[in-house]
Amino acid sequence: MDTSKKTIIVFSGDFDRVMAAFIIANGAAAMGDDVTMFFTFWGLNALRKPEKVRVKEKKSALQAMFGKMMPRGPGKMGLSKMNFAGMGAPLMKKVMKDQNVMSLDELMASAREQGVKLVACTMTLDVMGFKKEELIDGLEYAGVAAYLGEADEANVNLFI
Amino acid sequence: MDTSKKTIIVFSGDFDRVMAAFIIANGAAAMGDDVTMFFTFWGLNALRKPEKVRVKEKKSALQAMFGKMMPRGPGKMGLSKMNFAGMGAPLMKKVMKDQNVMSLDELMASAREQGVKLVACTMTLDVMGFKKEELIDGLEYAGVAAYLGEADEANVNLFI
Amino acid sequence: MDTSKKTIIVFSGDFDRVMAAFIIANGAAAMGDDVTMFFTFWGLNALRKPEKVRVKEKKSALQAMFGKMMPRGPGKMGLSKMNFAGMGAPLMKKVMKDQNVMSLDELMASAREQGVKLVACTMTLDVMGFKKEELIDGLEYAGVAAYLGEADEANVNLFI
Q1: Predicted ipTM > 0.85
Q2: Whether pTM exceeds 0.90
Q3: CB within 8 Å of C82: residues ≥ 6 apart
Q4: Which site among A10, A16, A22, A81 would you substitute to test the B interface, given the most B Cβ atoms closer than 10 Å to its Cβ?
Q5: How far is CA A83 from CA A78, B10, B97, in A?
Q6: Which residue segments constitute the domains of chain A, with CATH numbers given?
Q7: What is the tens place of the pLDDT at every residue in C125-157?
Q8: Chains near C, with 3+ CB pairs < 8 A?
Q9: Cα–Cα distance measured from residue C50 to residue B155, given in angstroms and rounded to the nearest whole number
């Protein structure tokens, strides 16, 4: 089996879109491919720790507000459709669990075990005022140039 | 003219996004390319028959609810923007028809006549509890591994 | 450094998604790549002049309505998430400016200076009734066949 490279930009912070990204990433990794996922804009929320983290550096009022209003990690993310004021995601998780589909937490853990590279966009980090200690461990940090370098080596590049 | 392969993941169930997917698919097929469209998550709604289909297997209450609330086929799908509580899509269809743009139904028929392969995501089918008889005829059924196999052979891979 | 080609379909008219598209386009152009951006559907709004332009040809009532309700240029576009009835985009612009991130106007100007090709989708133009004098100068005009021709030559093709 030939191995090849895949990149996925995870721009969206919607539960369903992030889920799709990890399903593709896990599938490709299982087939022996190198996979790199770049989390940018709302997608970065998928990498936040679920608990509030005390950080030393001061955030601007706007950064604090964005940080407070945006979901901390996949457990808090909503659906892109039929969100029903937040009730859609738990219902979707329930039907998925009933069908023995891996949860997003499990998909993320599996992706990391399989060596999928998770990259946090440094520009988004700066804009939103997120500090590294607020994000899950084991991430890489890079910008658009690093993404383009990897995309040039890949044969499938998706924007989700 | 060289022929090559294109894949499109249709994740979105928005009328306008599905329309864009079929415009690209038809264009590529007209240029002699092999085109495979994978319908997953909300995108699967584009492949539902417009009428309610009685199925033998029992669905869970949640599956029945999702099935009831999600649009049955392209005729019921809304716009991603300016949906105006469902009025946006008919208005968009009207301006498109005025300009002699093919309708989504026509684009779907044309795609199939041109040999575009339409694949329904089996995981979504399981999660949503859709049965094959509820979807239009002539589909293939496959999962993420099949998608990745085709994407590896393609030179353009889009996620819509 | 090898140069290669990138294409980006800008389908979305959301401020944040258009911003992401231009960040990638600028990054690739800075690395010496040829970049072509195709603006279609809502994405075409990013190319509208900010002021109302008097046009000779008559628009249909629906076209006039769409033209009036859709944003004229990037300055009027909203966010895909946390739009807060239009207040989200200014807040996002503020946090970006605080972090010395280039504004969307600057990114667009930089892209054009770097030779990024901006293509307006002629079908969308027809449907929406936009005239060339309502869009910014220096655009090319083409349809799906031209897009596919360029995508065939590119090694990264994104749909945003």
Answers
A1: yes
A2: yes
A3: A66, A69, A70, C88
A4: A81
A5: 6, 19, 32
A6: 5-159 (3.40.1260.10)
A7: 999 999 999 999 999 999 999 999 999 999 999
A8: A, B
A9: 37
